[in-house]
From TrEMBL:
<dbReference type="InterPro" id="IPR009057">
    <property type="entry name" value="Homeodomain-like_sf"/>
</dbReference>
<protein>
    <submittedName>
        <fullName>AraC family transcriptional regulator</fullName>
    </submittedName>
</protein>
<dbReference type="InterPro" id="IPR013096">
    <property type="entry name" value="Cupin_2"/>
</dbReference>
<dbReference type="InterPro" id="IPR018060">
    <property type="entry name" value="HTH_AraC"/>
</dbReference>
<dbReference type="InterPro" id="IPR014710">
    <property type="entry name" value="RmlC-like_jellyroll"/>
</dbReference>
<keyword id="KW-0238">DNA-binding</keyword>
<dbReference type="InterPro" id="IPR011051">
    <property type="entry name" value="RmlC_Cupin_sf"/>
</dbReference>
<dbReference type="InterPro" id="IPR018062">
    <property type="entry name" value="HTH_AraC-typ_CS"/>
</dbReference>
<dbReference type="InterPro" id="IPR020449">
    <property type="entry name" value="Tscrpt_reg_AraC-type_HTH"/>
</dbReference>
<dbReference type="Pfam" id="PF12833">
    <property type="entry name" value="HTH_18"/>
</dbReference>
<feature type="domain" description="HTH araC/xylS-type">
    <location>
        <begin position="192"/>
        <end position="290"/>
    </location>
</feature>
<keyword id="KW-0804">Transcription</keyword>
<dbReference type="Pfam" id="PF07883">
    <property type="entry name" value="Cupin_2"/>
</dbReference>
<keyword id="KW-0805">Transcription regulation</keyword>
Length: 296
């Protein structure tokens, strides 16, 4: 089975993310259908509702409601709902909580703080996949459900507590006997290549021809592919990237509005201000003035 080599962070734009989803069947996030894939982000998955087969590395096992797995960076995996979920008149639902953590963000913390040695060891073990069970699973499930409604620092602290609970618990087992070996059958995720190109070139005009060529697709095929993965049109997604970058520049720099517009790929200040207000509900001037100023 070929492995799609992808990333999650470019989609969520956040190094720590908790996602609760309910669908007719389990699908791989940011893919139109279940896909055997791997990514550098650590992943904790809790099945709230559903049953089927999960493939982690070379192990195929049944999963059902309550199944909880923590996997390390670049461990190939996919959860496949049973065929009954795909039947035409099926009313079955699948519900899952997935946590993604960029290992780069916590690397320095793990290395510098001695009290996190147990978490650091557990993250290494996660290269073989960790199945969590018993009272530990129930405790973490309750915490994840509560954290799904939290934001910011409170959510990050809560997820660190979850990692600590997993690390200290005896109610876990390694799924694989050996680390997952590099698979020569892997191939890069074309969408990640496109998103990186878009992010790196926001200062200039980006055409549909360019991104379709990067993805090795015709323009109509690329448009269908892009929307199936992001649930947004290419032009809409690009505009949101530009506005997000504009917000960052307005908060973090003192650049004039005209410079911000140029740095985000807008040749017309008036057009930039119009689009910005449509997205943010206020002009760039008002947005910047509303940002709290802190004095030393």
């Amino acid at each position: 089975m070929k492995v799609i080599e992808t990333e999650i962070t470019p989609f969520i734009k956040n190094p720590v993310h908790l996602d609760m989803r309910e669908d007719s069947y389990l699908s791989s996030p940011y893919h139109a259908k279940p896909a055997y894939h791997k990514h550098p982000e650590l992943q904790l998955t809790l099945i709230l509702e559903g049953h089927g087969k999960r493939i982690i590395g070379n192990e195929v096992a049944d999963f059902k409601s309550g199944d909880m797995v923590f996997i390390g960076s670049n461990v190939p995996h996919v959860w496949l709902s049973d065929p009954v979920y795909f039947e035409k008149d099926s009313k079955l639902k699948s519900k899952v909580i997935t946590v993604y953590i960029s290992p780069a963000v916590f690397q320095n913390i793990f290395e510098l703080i001695e009290e996190m040695d147990d978490i650091k060891l557990m993250v290494r073990e996660a290269s073989k996949g960790i199945n969590i069970y018993g009272k530990t699973r129930s405790l973490i499930a309750d915490k994840l459900i509560k954290l799904s409604s939290k934001t910011g620092f409170e959510k990050v602290v809560g997820l660190l507590q979850v990692l600590s609970i997993i690390a200290r618990s005896a109610e876990k087992r390694l799924i694989l006997e050996h680390d997952t070996a590099e698979d020569n059958g892997q191939y890069p995720d074309r969408l990640i290549q496109v998103l990186k190109f878009m992010t790196d070139n926001l200062k200039r005009q980006i055409t549909l021809d360019e991104v379709a060529e990067i993805a090795c697709m015709t323009k109509p095929s690329f448009c269908r592919f892009f929307k199936s993965r992001t649930h947004k049109k290419f032009s809409q997604y690009l505009e949101e990237l530009r506005i997000n970058e504009a917000c960052k520049l307005l908060i973090e720099t003192d650049h004039p509005i005209s410079d911000v517009a140029h740095l985000c790929g807008y040749n017309s200040d008036s057009h930039f201000c119009k689009v910005f207000k449509e997205h943010m509900g206020k002009s760039p001037f008002r947005f910047r003035s509303d940002v709290p100023k802190h004095s030393c």
